[in-house]
Design goal:
ATPase_NBD; Nucleotidyltransferase, domain 5; alpha/beta; 13 strands; five-stranded mixed beta sheet; ROK; 9 helices; binds zinc ion; single chain; ROK_cs; ROK family protein; 2 domains; six-stranded mixed beta sheet
């Protein structure tokens, strides 16, 4: 039986797995990300994960290898420049993974961004299963997203399509680290929610670093400042989602990430704001649901995208079908 190799590279952990055609992880390995170390030390951690995976008997049946990475990524050049891994800037990750001695010559690694991987995973096995037009979002310390259009993952020319966190929803809003103003991420990320609550006078629990989860807990207890912070984030998300729905006609929106763990604290105001911003007939009453595949979405999505693109023989194409869900 074929297995799909998968790597998920984030700011805290480098995870790897061999995934079977039903989406089950049959082997897994991980290393902490040496995020402050030089490029070659970082690569050493990736190779160590590949050493573990390739030591398993199932490696002999490796059909493809997907790499989900924190972004930005450039899937044409095969490079990554993760914001939270400063040692890698335009780092040629695809080429350097291909140079691992046990990666077979016939396997071309397929690189995708982490939010696009989450989208591929939700489309294959999660909340967007069977849906032809979906926006999937990760709302955590940042805001990322990916698109399924006409039943296929739409990663875009360089792998960054669906980058909803950097749509401007506030024309003269605060400067964003990306260089623009009033981006969704600056209003709706967990960082933004905590900062907004603190600025308005909310007091975090003693000893806490003041996280969005703390603000959510306060909101559930009825704290009006905490509720307002989530309401503002929900408003920004709704404006970004409504713009996307107007552009491409969505059937479903899936939201994962730490901030989505707040549940109705986020989803209730989000649905309320959607009814204000998404009013045209074709975009009204858009269904918004939580993600289903929290922990392994990056690995499952990397495997899905790699198998789809390898099967299609279009490893460099920006658009890929997703494998059929298991029966
Ligand atoms: Zn921005």
């Amino acid at each position: 039986m074929a297995v799909y190799g998968a790597l998920d590279i984030g700011g805290t952990k480098i995870a790897g797995a061999l995934v079977d055609p039903g989406g089950r992880l049959v082997v897994r390995s991980s290393r902490p990300t040496p995020a402050r170390e030089p490029a070659e030390v970082l690569l050493g951690a990736v190779h160590a994960v590949l050493d573990d995976l390739s030591a398993h008997a199932a490696w002999a049946d490796l059909a493809c290898l997907g790499i989900a990475s924190a972004g930005p990524v450039d899937t044409v050049a095969g490079t990554v420049s993760p914001v939270n891994i400063p040692g890698w800037r335009r780092f040629p990750l695809v080429e350097r993974i291909r140079s691992h001695p046990r990666v077979p010559a016939h396997v071309t690694p397929v690189l995708i961004g982490d939010a696009v991987a989450m989208t591929a995973a939700e489309h294959w096995l999660g909340a967007a299963r069977g849906v032809d037009n979906a926006l999937c979002m990760v709302v955590s310390t940042g805001v990322g997203g990916g698109l399924v259009l006409d039943g296929r993952l739409h990663a875009g020319r360089s792998g960054n399509a669906g980058h909803i966190g950097h749509i401007s929803v506030d024309l003269d809003g605060s400067a964003c680290p990306c260089g623009a103003r009033g981006c969704v991420e600056g209003l709706a990320s967990g960082t933004a929610i905590a900062a907004r609550a603190l600025a308005a006078g909310w007091t975090p629990p003693v000893g806490s670093a003041a996280t969005a989860a703390d603000v959510a807990a306060a909101a559930r207890r009825g704290d009006s400042i905490a509720r307002a912070a989530y309401d503002r984030a929900a408003q920004a998300l709704a404006a970004g989602i409504a713009a996307t729905a107007a552009l491409v006609e969505l059937d479903l929106v899936v939201i994962g990430g730490g901030v989505a763990q707040a549940g109705d604290t986020l989803f209730a105001p989000l649905r309320r704001w959607m009814s204000r911003y998404s009013v045209l007939d074709f975009a009204r009453d858009l269904e918004i649901v939580p993600a289903e595949l929290a922990l392994d979405a990056g690995l499952i999505g990397a495997a899905a995208a790699a198998s789809a693109r390898t099967a299609a023989g279009t490893v460099r194409s920006g658009s890929a079908a997703v494998p059929s869900p298991p029966a």
